[in-house]
Amino acid sequence: MAPARSSVPAIEARGLGRSFGDHVAVDGVDVTVAPGEVLGFLGPNGAGKTTTVRMLAGLLPPSRGTARVAGFEVTTEAASVRASVGLLTETPGLYETLPAHRNLRLFAELYGVDDPEPKIRRWLERFGLWGRRNDPSGSFSKGMRQKLAIIRAVLHEPPVIFLDEPTSGLDPEASIDVRDAIEELCHGGATVFLGTHNLVEAERLCDRVAVFKQRILAIDRIDALRTALFGRHLRLVLRAAPDEKLAEALTLVQTFSGVGAVTPVTPTEILAEIPDPAATHPALVAALAAAGVPLLYVQDASPSLEAVYRKLLEPSLTAMGGSS
Amino acid sequence: MTGRARRIRALVTKEAFEILANRWLLLTVFGVPAAVVVLTVLNVASLAKAPLPASALPEALRGSCTGLSDNECAQVHLGRTFGALYLLLPMILPSAIAAYGIVGEKRGRTLEPLLATPLQTGELLVAKVIAAVLPGIAAAWLGYGLWLGAVRVLTGPGLVGHLTSPAWVLAIAVLGPLFALLATTVGLMVSSRATDPRAAQQVASLLILPVVAGLVGQLTGAVVLTIPVTLALIAGAAVANALLLALAVRIFDREAILTRWS
After folding, report:
1. CA distances for B125 relative to A52, B103, B132, B207, angstroms
2. ipTM, 2 decimals?
């Protein structure tokens, strides 16, 4: 993989929007993605993720705003953008009567890949499909098809890769398989724009996430979003302890420098808000141990990405009439 | 080779592999010409056994048979009429392939990855046209050659000489492929807007009607394919092809295809 290592952003969009008739699908996206960064683009179905990906990949002209991808403007240099990015569409879209190898060969030639055979072999071997290269892609399992589609998207070694719902519709085993494959891509140094509503995937793969519904509601590192929305919490669990030990621990934690609000949750459990865990955790744990507090374990009790996601999308979820 | 030529070649190769992998399409591509060859050969064979009276020929044609016996004249006339089927063949086969061309990609959800490549709309359509037209033209020419061979074996070299007049050779070699291009481009235009390959094929097949009218004219003696007539038809077909291809590129709506078919 040949990432675009430079100070120029791999993706830069300003006020990017798209309407279909009266319907506003995407409304003013502002985003900058650094070369080599993996950005998760999270949002529910119908949020406009695919439309955004299509605009950024040079497939769909925006109704308003501008974007540059891999150094090219998406409206006036759409063909150059398409040549410089890899796109994994939501459905694999393989030629099912053709062998896997022929599918890849076609796209290698369309992208102008020089000497494609060694590259095709390397990728097929890497994703465990070399032995099935001459089988029609229609005979592949869903996971295998998706992996083949991923290879098709990266065979020309694009500096920017768009993955649109890569594990959508896959069973858990195939999802894990495909996620492993994507993880390999992410470590390869390319800029990856991952459109997904799979939060596990985002948490595992992304440097930053953007929560999106028509527009970007929030964009940051997952940790930063958690802290911004909920604060940082440490869960201290004590062995079945006499009440005075819990009271002693409570007092110690409450008065400890760098600790915010402290709440006893159960007779053996304390929840403490800690804005700067890296600076506070070690010292706090050491102080508790020194005081003879019978600590069973200490756990980061920050809310899950799902909680962050739900909180950010709360107004729209409420508007949809449910929180399921 | 330029990037453009390389992309067109890649897509034509893909189309060829897809046609080869589709047994039903193969049957259409090679079954129909085979049936036409058999039919036309049987016709000439029956004519060789049971000569037609001169009165069976239209007056207009009898005048063009100078130096030929009534039966030879009838053979030339019917031979040319059946030979016109080889002008129709390149239209029928490619239109079937072309009608499936874009609709098939839409239904297989393969069009978005294709449109995501640097491939331009014109390149996509040219590749589709080439891939659809070549098997039809090859099958028609092969069938025509086989038919002429059979005519020679059954009736001797005289009739073949009349059936391969310069006007006819020009028509089969140039006019047939141009007709094929017309039918294919129309098939692709409809295919890019339609949701069902059958609809696309039916609309494209309407183009056959003028050629069928010409065939009827040939049968009645109202139309005689001379060099000037053939050249005029070639010029008209070439202009129509250029205009239609430009129109096809213009009406190919990437956006509608992407948003409606994904």
Report:
1. 27, 13, 10, 19
2. 0.80
